[in-house]
Amino acid sequence: MSQSTNVITVTAANFQSVVIDGSFARPVLVDFWADWCAPCRMLMPMLAQLAEDYGGKLLLAKVNTEEEQALAAQFGIRSLPTVQLFKDGKAIDQFMGALPESQVREFLDRHIPRASDGLLTQAQALMASGDLAAARDLLEQAKAEDPGNGRLALAEVRLTAAQGDITKALSGLDALPIDLANDPEVAALRGQLRFASAAADAALESELQARLDADAKDSEARYQLAAALVLRGDYASALEHLFELMKRDRAFQDDAGRKGMLAVFDMLDSNDDLVARYRAKMMNALY
């Protein structure tokens, strides 16, 4: 494919200006390739077409590693093809090998704003403020303008949950596009919805605590109390109850204590002290 404003060959002489400096204006996808590399020759035309498809939101920079060995060494290139994405002056992500187009698009969509992202952000703000009708209108507008944005489906699940239909929201999660199946946001939302379902018809926290005070083996009360604590953000107390449930009654709702702990881990930052502490406690108790 001929060169265009969205595809350029770079060398050591212009790498700084094109890739490093240029990535402050738009993401730059750097394709490290060699003529002897058959997968490279398969991947390059597809990357060039994607650069055109993204309509100026992405620059493809091609580096011939046979001619630019110093550049390849500088960026730790050990296998070909290697494709790195630069943004705001640094490499922020990469993939290796000739991935299929669907996976490359998924890779790019994690970093390149879509036309509908602004509407999606506005809709999420409206959901947070409780204006669900206006949020629905914006999501419908975004879907009409950009039906390929898979994150709109996730926003619709959140809207369904906000409207109180937890069962339908859980079904909506199961129907999300395959590229979102392992998304950390999906895992966190799934856990939140399961706790919401568990707490939906439960008694007040004070009543559940009273049941536990009377009978520490009341697994249902312990799980429902943990769910209520999760929903109001008291993750430490919730994890303690779930840990106790795991130790006391693995048979309750198919190991709900252990699975509940894992769900809370998904809802928290992996570097959170609570996650480290209770993951260690869980492993020690199990093994």
Automatic annotation (TrEMBL):
GO MF: protein-disulfide reductase activity
SUPFAM superfamilies, A to Z: Thioredoxin-like (SSF52833), TPR-like (SSF48452)
GO cellular component: cytoplasm
Keywords: Disulfide bond, Electron transport, Redox-active center, Transport
NCBIfam families, per database record: thioredoxin
Protein name as it appears in the record: Thioredoxin
Residue ranges crossing the lipid bilayer per the database entry: none
Gene: trxA
Cited Gene3D superfamilies: Glutaredoxin, Tetratricopeptide repeat domain
GO process annotations (BP): response to stress
InterPro entries registered for this protein in UniProt: Thioredoxin, Thioredoxin-like_sf, Thioredoxin_CS, Thioredoxin_domain, TPR-like_helical_dom_sf, TPR_rpt
Family: Belongs to the thioredoxin family.
Boundaries of every Thioredoxin domain copy: 6-113
PANTHER family to which the protein is assigned, alphabetical: GEO12009P1
Pfam families per the UniProt record, alphabetical: Thioredoxin (PF00085), TPR_19 (PF14559), TPR_20 (PF14561)
